[in-house]
Amino acid sequence: MLHLLAERDRYGYEMLSLLHAAFPDTQESAIYALLRALCRGEYTENYQGEVSGGPVRKYYRVTEKGRGRCDELLEQWRKMKRALDELGVV
C-alpha cells in the first residue's frame, strides 16, 4: 500500500480496486483497517478531496516516514527475491 501511495495520492476505493485486480480475495475491511493503521503509525496522512458531484473522498498520501519505511520493505523484498532466485524457486 505504501508503494501505491508513493506513486501518488489515492482514495480508499481506488486502492481497493487496484488491490482487487491483483488479489481478488482482498477484503474491503482489511484495506481500510490497514489505511487507518498506516495513518496511526504516521506512515501516511489523509485529507478530504474536492467534491465533484459525488460524496467527498478521503485521500491518502505517504509521509517522509512512510517513504523511508517503503524503501526498507522494498529492500527486504529484493533480498528475499534474490535468495529465492539463488535457490531456484520460481
What coarse outline follows from CA principal-axis ratios? globular
| Mean pLDDT over the residues | 93
- SSE ordering: HEHHEEH
Number of helices: 4
Please outline the major beta sheet.
3 strands, antiparallel
Q: Between the first and last Cα atoms, what is the distance in angstroms?
A: 24 Å
> Radius of gyration from the CA trace?
15 Å
Biggest sheet, strands in spatial order? Answer: 1-3-2
Could you name the ranges where pLDDT drops below 50 across 5 or more consecutive residues?
A: none
Strand content: 5-15%
Structural class by secondary-structure content: alpha+beta
**Helix-residue proportion:** 55-70%
Tell me which oligomeric state these chains represent. single chain
Beta strand count: 3
Structure, described:
It is built from 4 helices and 3 strands. It is α+β, with helices and mostly antiparallel strands. It starts with a helix and ends with a helix.
Question: Summarize this, please?
Answer:
The chain has helices spanning 2-7, 12-22, 28-40, 64-87, and strands spanning 10-11, 44-48, 58-62.
Topology of this protein?
Blueprint: H1 2-7, E1 10-11, H2 12-22, H3 28-40, E2 44-48, E3 58-62, H4 64-87
Antiparallel strand pairs: 1-3, 2-3
